[in-house]
Batch of 3 targets.
Target 1
Amino acid sequence: MAKAYINARIWRSDAEAFLIEDHRFVQIGDNRSILEAVKDGEVIDLKGAFVTPGFIDSHMHLAYYGYYLSTVPLGGCMSAAEIVQALNAKKEEMVPGQVLQGMGYNESAFTSGPKAITRADLDSVSAEIPIVLTRHCGHIACVNTKVLEMCGIDAVTSIEGGEIDYENGLLKENAMRPMLDTLGHANAAEFEEYIVKGMQALNAYGITSCGSDDFLLRSDSYRMPLDVFLRLSYQGRMTVRVNEQCEFRTPEDLASFLDEGYTTGVGNEYFSIGPLKIIADGSLGGRTAKMSEPYADDPATTGTVDIDEEKMDIMVGLANRYNMPAITHAIGDGAVDQVLRVYRKYLLPGNPLGYGLVHCQIMRQDQTQEAIDSWLNCYIQSLFVDSDAAILKERVKPELAETSYPWKTLYENTNTSNGSDAPVEIPDALRGIYFAVTRTSLMSGDLMNQAECLTVDQALESYTEKGAKAFGMDDAIGRIAEDYYADFTVMDTDITQCPVEDILKAKIIRTVVGGEDVYCA
Ligand SMILES: [Zn+2]
C-alpha cells in the first residue's frame, strides 16, 4: 500500500511531501500532488519536521557494538575507583564460569586518581572471576591475574605484533588474541542478539545503513557471522542495511571466502559484501598508532604495526584479483606510508574498485595529496575530536598536528564519508555532525586546526551521500529521490538553520528504512 508523507521540511529541497510504494520513493513533490497520488493509501503528517536521507555510518563494528551494549559500559567512568565500583556491582549477578567484561574505558579522561587502570585494580574486584576490560579504542585490554593465568601469559611471554605489560595486566594489539581465544567466541544465537541489539540502537540515532567490520570480533572466521547476517536479511529482520567490511585472520581464510563465490557486491538489499578490511596499526590514545618518528610524549616508541607489509600485500593482491578492493585502518603516518606503498601496486586510475583509507588521522601533507591523487575513499570519524583534540598536541609535533585529521581537504577532493567506529564512539550521528563542524572537544575545549572544519551541509553529506558512494550504492541509498530506497530520518530541528550548539539538542523523532518505521520517539 502506498504511503504519503506530507508537510515535511526536506533538506536541500523545495518539495514538502513524498510518496512511498514498494519500499521506495516513487514521487517527491508538493502536498497537493502527493495527496492526489496516494489515493486511499496512508497519509502521515510530519508537521514541518526536518527530513534528511537516512544517516549512513560508514565504518563501525555492528555486532561488537551490540556486544558492548551487553557488557558493563565504562565510557562514563572518570577514575579507576569508579570502574572498580561498577565491576563490583556487576559481580553480584555473575554465575560461575562467566567472564566479567567491561568495555569503553578511557584512562586519559580520568579526572581523579592516577590516569591508569591496572591488573591490581581488577584483582581487588576478584581473584577467581576472570575480568577483561577493553579500552575504548578497542586496541588495548586490561585483565586480571586470573585471565593471564588462563592465557598462559607470564612475565617473559612475547607475541608478534603485540605488546604485553605483564605488571599492569595490559595486552595491546595482537597480544589481545590469546585472551579473546580463551574467552571463547560467540555462538550464532549470541551473535544474532548482538546484531539485533546494535541495529535497534543505531535506528534510535537515525542510522539506516552502515559499513561494518564483524568477522573477527567475538568470532575467528567469517563463517558464522556471514551465516547470521544472511539469515537475518533473508528473514526480513534487518533494520539497518549492512555493507560488510570483511576482515580475515589469514590469507587462507580470505582465499576460502573468495572460493565460495563471495566478493564485493555479492548479497541482497539489506546485507552486502563490501571491501576487504585490513588493520595496519593501533590507536593514537594507546600510543600504538604506527608513526614514522617517535612519539613526542614517549620517544621510546613509534607504535605498533599489526600486519607486516608482505602479508598485507598477499591479502590485497589476492582480493584484487576478485575485484575486491581493500580499505585499511591506518592511524599513524608510518602505517599510512605502508598502506600507500601496497596500494600503489594495485590501484587503477580513478580508483574504480574503491580502495580506501580508514581513519585518516595522523597524516603528512604528501600523504593527503597522494590519497587525493589516487581518489581513495576516505573514512573519517569526526566523533574522535572529543577525545583526540587534547592528546593530538601531546603525541605529535605541532607541524604534524597541523596537517593531521585533514577532513575538509579530503572532503573537497575525494569521497570522504563519516562514521563512528562504534563501539569506539557512541554512533550518535548528530553529535558527529557537531564535531565535524566545530572540531572542538567538549571534554577538553581543545580546537583542532580550524581550517579543516566542514559546513553543516558537508557534514550531512558525509553521513549520507558520501557513505552511499563508499559502499558503491549511490544509485540506491543516501538521497531522497525517486527510485531510491525509502530510507530517511526525521528530526525536530532543521540543523542547517539552527545555532551550532543546538545540533546537540536536536532529537531524532522517526527513522524509516525501506518505507517501514524502525524507530519512533
Ligand atoms: Zn574500526
Target 2
Amino acid sequence: MDRLLNLGKFPDSFRTRGAIAPSSDRLCVALAGLASNADHILELGAGTGAVTRALTKVSGVKSLQAVELQKKLAHDLKLKFPGVDVENCSADVALDSYCAQGSVAVVSSLPFRSLPGNIKSAIVKSVLRFLQASPQSRFIQFTYGFREPFAVSAEFQWRRVKWIYANLPPACIWVLTKTEVTCEAARPE
Ligand SMILES: C[S@@+](CC[C@H](N)C(=O)[O-])C[C@H]1O[C@@H](n2cnc3c(N)ncnc32)[C@H](O)[C@@H]1O
C-alpha cells in the first residue's frame, strides 16, 4: 500500500523524495546491520518508515530518533512507531540540535543527488560538523549511482560497503567517518 501511495504522489515532490519506491527489505536490513553496534540511531528522511521498521529491530541501542520533513509522513510515522522519537523538521536542524552520549549511527535515505543546492549544502555542513564533534559516530547513506553521495575533504572518508541489487533501482551503501588522525608523537621509533 505504501508503495502505491508513493507512486500516486509522483512527481510533485520528487526532488525531496528522490525515489519511486520504498527501500527493499534487503536494503533496510543491510542499513540496520551497519547501525547495530552504535549507542544511538538517528534516521534522516524516514519517509513511510521502511528503514525505520528495520531500525526498530536493532537491539541494544539506547535511543532511536527518526526525522522526516513532510508533515503528513511524520504524523503517520508517529502512529506507526509509537516507541520511536519522530521529529518533523529538516535533517540539518535535527543534526545541529541532536544531543547524545556515545556513538551515533546516522542512517540517511536523503536524496542528496536531487535535493535543491542550498538544502543539500546546509545538510552536508551539518553532517560534517556532527562527525567533527562526534568522531566515533558514522553516517550511513545509500545512493543509486557509482559516485559517493557527496564530496568531502581529506578529514573525512567514504567507504563503499555493498551493493544491494534486490532494490528498485539497485542501491549502493556508503559509510562516512572522520578520518583517523595519526599523531606523529604516537608513532613507534
Ligand atoms: C527516498 S525517501 C526515503 C523514504 C524511506 N526512508 C525509504 O527508504 O523508503 C526520502 C525522504 O527524505 C525526506 N526528506 C527530503 N528532504 C529532507 C530534509 N531536508 N530533511 C528531512 N527529510 C527530508 C523526504 O520527504 C522523503 O520522505
Target 3
Amino acid sequence: MSLTFYFAPMSTASTVHWSLEELGVPYEAVKVDLSDAADKQRKLGPVNPNLKVPVLVHDGTPIFESAAIQIYLGETFGVDKGLYPASGPKRAEALKWLVWANVNLAEVVSRWQRNVSKHFPAEAQNAAAGRDARSELDQLIGVFEKELAEKSYVLGESVSLVDFHMASLFQWIGFLDVSLAKFPNTKAWSERCSVRPATLRLMGE
Ligand SMILES: N[C@@H](CCC(=O)N[C@@H](CS)C(=O)NCC(=O)O)C(=O)O
C-alpha cells in the first residue's frame, strides 16, 4: 500500500494532513512551493491538472479536492479506526457537513479574502462584495453554531474526520481574525479539536 500526500504548509492541504496524522496510516509527504511555478508544475502536473494542493495518491490513483480526499480516507481507513461512520444515516451526516464546509464556508471565506485582502490585486476588488461575504460568513457560522448546540462533535459524541476537516478550516478563519466570541458552541468545539496531539504536532512543524 502506498500513500503520497502533496501539500503546502498553511493551505487547504492542512485539513487532509490532520486526518492522515489522526488515522495513523503511513504516508509520504511531498511539500510543494506554491510560489514557484516550476516546482508546482513538476510535482503537481502529473497528479492534478488544476495544479493545486492537496492531492493524495493511493496506490497510483490521484485524488484532488480536500472534501473528496476526506471522504475517500474515511471510507478506506476511517471506518475501521472509528473515525468515520459506516454506510448509513450517520455517513449521510458526514457527507453533508464535509460538502457544506467546502461549498459554502470555504467559498465565502475565499470570496471575502479576494475582495479585501492586500494579498489580492486591489484593482480586482469590490468593497461591497467583501462586506457581503463577511456578513454571509457570520450567517454560516450561525448555522453551524446551532448544529453544535447539543453535542461535542459534528457527528455526535465521537470525534471524526469531519471535525478535523472543519476545525482546520476554522483555524484558517481564526488566522484571518474572525472572532468566535458570538459563537460559544463553535468556539468550544474548535478549542476541543485544536488541542489534539495530531494538530499540535503539525502546527509545531
Ligand atoms: N477546493 C480545493 C481548493 C484547493 C486550493 O485552492 N488550494 C490552493 C492552496 S489553499 C492551491 O494549491 N493554490 C495553488 C496556488 O496558489 O498556486 C480543495 O478543497 O482542495
